[in-house]
Every structure is written in structure tokens, then in C-alpha cells.
Write a structure and sequence with these properties.
Layout lengths: L3 E5 L3 H4 L1 H10 L4 H16 L6 E2 L5 E5 L3 E7 L5 E7 L2 H18 L3 E3 L1
Antiparallel strand pairs: 1-5, 1-6, 2-3, 3-4, 4-5
């Protein structure tokens, strides 16, 4: 099955509708808080536990279960790259659901490859 890559601009964590919502809910403008809330939300949508496991010098495994694997790395322009690799049809369906939810209001900050 084909992987999906989300490329997230750094401004997503400070200027996006998602970031503004978290800032107002938590009364905190911390970049790190918004990053971790975002990962938590991805995990909830994808029904995956978020882990952080170094897979190489530059890459991290964010989640790995029966339905999918999620890996993370950063490019030279400081963009976050999340690769979603489905292992089952259910994993593929969950990834499509996540794409639809994330891109609704945040399409200016997130691109799909």
C-alpha cells in the first residue's frame, strides 16, 4: 500500500486555526504544547498510540501498530514530514479520515504528497 506524507510548515504551530484554538483553550502559546497536542490528536484519529523511537539518526517512528506505521523527520527548511504507511485496508481508511479532518481548516499550512 502507498504511503501518504504530510508536510507541515512551522507556521502551522503558531498561526493555523488549529494552533489558535489550542492557544485559546490552554491559555498557552508554547510551540511545543501545540506540537504535542497535534500528535495526540493524530493518534486519536488514527487509533494509534504515539511513541517516539529513533529509527535512524534523522528519523523517528511515531507510531507502529497492526494497521499502520508513522515516521517523522524534518527537512532543511524546518518543515515536519510525517509519513503514514498503511499496513491494512483499515489503516488506509483511517489515514484518509485523518487527511479530511486536518485539511479542512489548515490546508494553507499542510500539504499532502
Amino acid at each position: 500500500m502507498e504511503k501518504t506524507t504530510l508536510v507541515i510548515q512551522p507556521s502551522f504551530y503558531t498561526e493555523s486555526p488549529y494552533a489558535k484554538y489550542i492557544m485559546s483553550e490552554e491559555n498557552d502559546k508554547s510551540y511545543g504544547l501545540i506540537y504535542f497536542e497535534f500528535l495526540h490528536e493524530i493518534g486519536m484519529i488514527l487509533e494509534a498510540d504515539i511513541i517516539f523511537d529513533h529509527s535512524s539518526e534523522k528519523d523517528w517512528i511515531i507510531a507502529d501498530n497492526n494497521h499502520m506505521q508513522i515516521t517523522y523527520n524534518k527537512d532543511g527548511q524546518n518543515n515536519d514530514h510525517f509519513d503514514f504507511i498503511p499496513k491494512t485496508i483499515e489503516g488506509k481508511e483511517l489515514i484518509v479520515k485523518m487527511q479530511e479532518q486536518l485539511l479542512q481548516e489548515n490546508h494553507k499550512f499542510i500539504t499532502l504528497h
